[in-house]
Amino acid sequence: ASRIAGSASQIGLTSQQVLALATSLSSVGIEAEMGGSAISTIMTNIDKEVALNGKHLKTWASTAGMSSKEFKKAWETDTMSAIQAVVKGMGEVKDEGGNLNVLLEELGVKNIRQTDTMKRLSNASDLLTNSLQIANNAWEQNSALTTESDKRYNTTAAKLGQVKETLKEVAIDLINLEIQDIGELATVEYIYTDAGKFEDSAK
Fold this sequence. Notes:
Layout: H1 2-11, H2 15-27, H3 32-52, H4 57-63, H5 68-77, H6 79-95, H7 100-106, H8 112-121, H9 125-202
């Protein structure tokens, strides 16, 4: 996933989408280093095609089952859905007897690692969809747990704050009581001392 994260963040993929994509690549037997580098380059190239209306944009869009305008919008607003559409489209081309080598060349994908990655990924359209669903669910559950944990922490912190204030009040009361007791003792001692002096003068 770390191999994909850099370029993925530039095109707007979320952490869970990166994880799902990395999981799918691993599941079809693509090594993390090779697959991560290859898919990152391909995504960066598609992003350039979309930004510059490049010569391969129409073919990418056609592979995804969209017009150039639709694909451009999908890529800019929901990049992962555009990637899924491309992967699904390549799988359909293969299932219908089409030649992926020819298609990939038309898409400008000629590097052997990149072509191998896309060929394998074209067999994993459903796997990619399932991986995304699992990753999203796990992310939501983790977010919910984090939120609940924060609530409990804040509640505990508030209770500790209340206990602290209560202890302060108790301490103040104890100090006041001690001062009062000391005052009373001083008064008693004073009376006793004066009484002693009075007794001495009477002798």
